[in-house]
Amino acid sequence: MTPTARLLATFDLFCAVDGDKRPVDAVTSGWFRNRRDIPDQDRGDILERLYALLRHRARLTWWLDKHGRDHSPRHQFLAWLALMERKSPEDVSRLFGGPKNAATALTKPEYNLVLRLKGCTIEHPDMPEAVRLECPSWAEQSLRARFGGAFAAEMAATLTPPPVDLRVNPVKATRQDMLQALSDLKLHAEVSPLAPHGIRVSGRFNYARFPALKSGAVEIQDEGSQLVALLVDAQPGDRVVDFCAGAGGKTLAIAAQMNNKGRIIACDVSEGRLKRCSERLRNAGMHNTETRLLASETDKWVKRHKLGFDRVLVDAPCSGTGTWRRNPDTRWRDPEENGLQNLIALQGRILASAARLVKPGGRLVYATCSMLTEENEDQVTAFLAANPAFRLVPLGDVTPDLAAKAQGDTLSLTPARHDTDGFFAAVLQRETTPE
Ligand SMILES: C[S@@+](CC[C@H](N)C(=O)[O-])C[C@H]1O[C@@H](n2cnc3c(N)ncnc32)[C@H](O)[C@@H]1O
User: Fold this and answer.
1) CB–CB of 253/165 below 8 Å?
2) Does 42 belong to an annotated binding site?
3) 59 pLDDT band (50/70/90 cuts)?
4) Among residues of the chain, what percentage have pLDDT more than 90?
5) 315 annotated as belonging to a binding site for a ligand
6) Which of 244, 267, 318, 369 is catalytic?
7) Which of 41, 50, 304, 416 has the most CB within a 10 Å radius?
8) pLDDT tens digit string along 162-208?
9) Domain 223-430 is of which CATH architecture?
10) Ligand 1, residues 165, 219, 268, 366: which to mutate, most atoms within 8 A of Cβ?
11) Is 15 a known active-site residue?
């Protein structure tokens, strides 16, 4: 592809993402399915630019406000071309107006916008800090309270492209073999800093083409997510519930940890996600698993199986603030639409209901990919106050290796401090005498 064709393709994809409520990776996969002619190298370039655009959205729209323009994807893209690609108004006119170009020619006001942005830089001294750091207003107060003086550094880290983390499935492969396979593809791969089955890869690559991913020998999984699954500390032969299993990211890791022995039940209220979970478990060669569709967190199945499990993981639905660097679009999907308070209340209900499944001496692990105290420490405090049969197990007692990553007695990972997604996890144990 020519540089012009790549830019126009990025613009087309950006418009598709902007007008779609689905997560950006779902939109991009659909878009590329219809553009199979695009070579891998160009695909990487288009995706990189798209994600960079999404990471600059507050700053781009600040400039549009300053010049009295609306936030249409076309205006955002024009601002991007002027401010980040340093294109002159003439360059931009040529880009949009060419005879073979699908994008319509620049109007006079659009030309003037690019002209007014000429020579400006993306950041401006008048920009509020939250705009510079791309922090949405719905989360700003909580994140400032959580991070204090480290707020700017933590937010800046959410704006950096994340590494690609893989988890090797020990049922199908060894980490050494996978490191070799990646090196054969001329990719720089090394063992993850913390996760025992993790590999961190740098370099651009269309992972869909990596045979080990297709065969279930490796999974793409952030190192933080791998560590949360490890905290469940499921042993071969245990009975385990993954209460909010989704498409099974953590179920797969837990099942592997159990070496295919014992039973793990993946529950969720989403039929589609559970179906994907089953497919992935089958592909990964995990036979100690089943899926269970719940009507709600208080499904009758929960009552029927109370006190029946050694380990229960609640990877609760959350604001996703910990995944902003990986999913830059999510910070602009205001959870207030569904209600952050509603989400917090749902987390409390899920935790209370899932706790009933834990047998005496068994453990409940509460986790989120959120960095908001309201969804993390506050949930645990409220749960322990209402459930005196449970106590918090200090992280150092579960995994001494991770204790240094703890905030108090719970696991608290952030992109700035650990170069993982933001994750929280607390291990709660039911006393041996039931209430
Ligand atoms: C953070 S995601 C889980 C991600 C998954 N554990 C993984 O590692 O890939 C939260 C999941 O909770 C599910 N969920 C939402 N409400 C629920 C409820 N009331 N009971 C059980 N699961 C629920 C959602 O469908 C979603 O799949």
Assistant:
1) no
2) no
3) very high
4) 82
5) yes
6) 369
7) 50
8) 999 999 999 999 999 999 999 998 889 999 999 999 999 987 777 77
9) 3-Layer(aba) Sandwich (3.40)
10) 268
11) no
Give CA angle at 208 (227, 177), nearest 5°. Answer: 60
Question: Ligand 1: does its nearest atom lie under 6 Å from the Cβ of 281?
Answer: no
Question: CB of 315 closer than 6 A to ligand 1?
Answer: yes
* Ligand 1 close to Cβ of residue 223 (< 6 A): no
Would strands 263-268 and 239-242 be described as parallel, antiparallel, or unpaired? parallel
| Residue 209 pLDDT exceeds 80 | no
Binding site membership of 297 for ligand 1 (Cβ less than 6 Å): yes
Q: Per-residue b/e over 253-269, b at no fewer than 16 CB within 10 Å? A: bbbbbbeeebbbbbbbe
The structural domains of the chain, with segments of one domain joined by +, span 3-135, 164-220, 223-430
- The alpha carbon of 242 and the centre of ligand 1 are apart by a number of angstroms equal to 9
Q: What are the backbone dihedrals phi and psi of residue 196, each rounded to the nearest 5 degrees, phi first?
A: -65, -25
Protein residue with its CA nearest to atom 1 in ligand 1 = 317
Q: What's the CA angle centered on 367, arms 365 and 373, to 5 degrees?
A: 125
- Dihedral sign, Cα of residue 382, residue 385, residue 391, residue 394: positive
335 and 285 Cβ atoms separated by less than 8 Å: no
C-beta of residue 199 within 8 angstroms of C-beta of residue 178: yes
Separation CA 62–CA 312 (nearest Å):
45
Residue 422 Cβ < 6 Å to ligand 1 = no
Interatomic CA distance for residues 397 and 223, integer angstroms? 21
Is this model's pTM higher than 0.90 or not?
Answer: yes
CA distance linking residue 406 with residue 392, whole number of Å? 13
Instruction: Give pLDDT tens digits for 284-341.
Output: 999 999 999 999 999 999 999 999 999 999 999 999 999 999 999 889 876 666 688 9
Q: Which of 3.30.110.30, 3.40.50.360, 3.40.50.720, 3.30.70.1170 would CATH assign to domain 164-220?
A: 3.30.70.1170
Q: pLDDT digits over 384-398, tens only?
A: 999 999 999 999 899
Least confident of 234-248, 332-346, 351-365: 332-346
Tens-digit pLDDT profile for residues 92-137: 999 887 666 667 889 999 999 999 999 999 999 999 999 999 999 9
Cα–chain center distance at 226: 13
Q: Rounded CA gap, 17 and 325, in Å?
A: 17
